[in-house]
Amino acid sequence: MHVVLYKEEPKSREILAFALESKLGASVSRAAKFEDVVQVLLANNPVDLIICDSKPENATLYKMLLSTGSNIPVLLLLNSTSPQQQNISFPDIKILAGINLDGEPGMEKVIEIIRNEVKNGNLKPTTDDPDYCRVSAELAIQVSPLQGDLYIRLSNTKHIKLFKKGEQLNKTHIEQVLTEKKIKFLFVHRSDYGSFLLKFGEDLKKIADSPTATLQEKEMLSLSAIQVLHELSHKIGFTEEVHELARESVRLVVTTLSKDFKLVNVLKAFAKDRDKYIASHSLMVAHVACGISTKMTWPSDTTSQKLVTAAICHDLSINNQELAKIRTLKELNNNTTSYTPEEITAYKSHPYTSADSLSQANDISSDVDFIIRQHHERPDGSGFPRGLNARNIAPLAAVFIVAHDIVDFICQQGTDNPSFDNFVAEYFSQYSSGIFKRILVAITPELTKNRAA
User: Which pTM does this prediction carry?
Assistant: First the structure.
């Protein structure tokens, strides 16, 4: 996404530019005066969006856009002296919104509007540079001394080195810097993937085996590890190094499982995050699925490993956080304008492609394969990709489907105090026979006692 940021005041221009580059991966062309805008518009690099202050002088810009037949949308930045949008005389100019750029709330509103425009298909999404992989900042700073250079992204094609290979990081100081600059992700170059993965795996193993590591530390590291796993599987495939990271991630998550499953504890541990939906969703499904197996009196280390592996990898072939929230093909068909044809095709086939990604790993159980391939099937046969009904869905896959439904319900209701009475009522008829009915009977006491938690 190429954005022209036309703003005279340099400090606020740079702050907003950094937000656009770091949070959206946009390529931003700064413009302090109208002549700068003209130069950018006449260049060969197409412009997707113009952001500018709302002022009478914009008439010149609008006239130029109309004279060239351009339909570039404009997002206006308002202030106390220009509270109104200045396009009344130019109804053919597409004004996305007028935003009062007043500190962080205004900045976040700009980002939110652009994200919604991308989601609705009105703006092009940013495509990532294939030579760099995004790594959670929390996880990246664990690797000290650094196994490779760490970068921040200024645009989808421009990265700047922040830390050098071999550096010993002062974790407390670095956390302060990242917090102040609101940097959630750092980037690793393709040439350093292998060494970083090796060190990540070693660190995960140490934390999993550590008697002093807290549950919160393990959960946060698990979340970060799953993010890296998904990022790298898209960049380089499910290689032996990625497989090893998956194996250690499963071991770590299993150590966080409670012997005495309490749903309220899962709600406290994980919250929705726009940038971490797939990872946090996967962890919640892992915990709930293993909790259900406990209520079904099926608990064992082997069962937990199967369910956790399936949870971590069931959306492995999806790389769009919003697309991962889609539950049914009907819901997808109602939102086709929000996604590219390639994303729609990938979603429809992801139960197969995610399972196929694991097929080259000899130590993955066939039960995991069944769970992943069947996780979007429904007991009444209305699911996909095969339209299986309750009689043909594997028992562990049924446990996983119910866990998936519970987590989706939580994400819709909010993690503060979801009404599980409503869940039981909604799914009572759907889970009316066979293994699904047995699961609902087993977990209903746990669900309904959390209604006031």
Answer: 0.70
